[in-house]
């Protein structure tokens, strides 16, 4: 990112992928003439990591869910229960959710539940080496 302040000063930020730093912060690197250089190390600069899309049912049948993965958008479901009609579920299959404009859903989540007020979120994330199971209660 290159930001010009007025006509004379530049601020140059290099975003670096670091899986072990969830949010990160800019770090000043150097000043050269009229330019300030910063490194920003964060997991948010990393490409989303796919997860295993092969599932097996209790009879031993295997299914490949990878055709359900979305690269630029997410599956979006509105809750139809009377007391929860303001909830929207953002889901992706086989990979983390994609960025949701106007939302604070983190990019590494597999699912994000956003009420009408997006200040309160329920987020489910998965480390690819772990199993995840959950139930939606009526």
What is the compact description of this entry?
0% of the residues lie in helices and 38% in strands. With 138 residues, the chain is mainly β.
Provide keyphrases for this structure.
4-stranded mixed β-sheet; elongated; 0% helix; mainly beta; disordered C terminus; 138 residues; 38% strand
Mean pLDDT: 74
Helix content bin? under 10%
Structural class assignment: mainly beta
Number of helices: 0
Topology, number of strands = 10
Radius of gyration: 20 Å
Distance between the termini: 46 Å
Q: Your description of this structure?
A:
It is a single chain. This protein has 138 residues and is mainly beta. It folds into 2 domains: 2-45, no CATH class; 54-125, no CATH class. 0% of the residues lie in helices and 38% in strands. It is built from no helices and 10 strands. It has strands at residues 2-5, 9-17, 26-32, 35-42, 54-56, 62-64, 75-78, 88-91, 109-114, 122-125. The strands form 3 sheets. The protein has a 4-stranded mixed sheet, with no helix packed on it. Strands 7-8-9-10 form a 4-stranded antiparallel sheet, with no helix packed on it. A hairpin with a 3-residue loop joins strand 1 and strand 2 (9-17). The model is unreliable at 117-138 (pLDDT under 50).
List the helices and strands and how they pair.
Blueprint: E1 2-5, E2 9-17, E3 26-32, E4 35-42, E5 54-56, E6 62-64, E7 75-78, E8 88-91, E9 109-114, E10 122-125
Parallel strand pairs: 2-4
Antiparallel strand pairs: 1-2, 3-4, 5-6, 7-8, 8-9, 9-10
């Amino acid at each position: 990112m290159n930001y010009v302040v007025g006509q004379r000063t530049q601020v140059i930020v290099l975003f670096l992928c670091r899986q072990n730093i969830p949010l990160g912060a800019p770090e000043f690197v150097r000043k050269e003439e009229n330019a300030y250089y910063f490194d920003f190390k964060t997991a948010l600069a990393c490409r989303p990591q796919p997860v295993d899309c092969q599932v097996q049912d209790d009879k031993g049948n295997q299914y490949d869910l990878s055709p359900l993965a979305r690269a630029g958008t997410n599956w979006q479901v509105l809750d139809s229960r009377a007391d929860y009609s303001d909830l929207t579920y953002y889901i992706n299959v086989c990979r983390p959710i994609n960025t949701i404009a106007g939302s604070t859903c983190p990019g590494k989540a597999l699912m994000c539940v956003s009420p009408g007020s997006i200040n309160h979120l329920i987020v489910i994330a998965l480390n690819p080496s772990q199993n995840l199971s959950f139930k939606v209660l009526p």
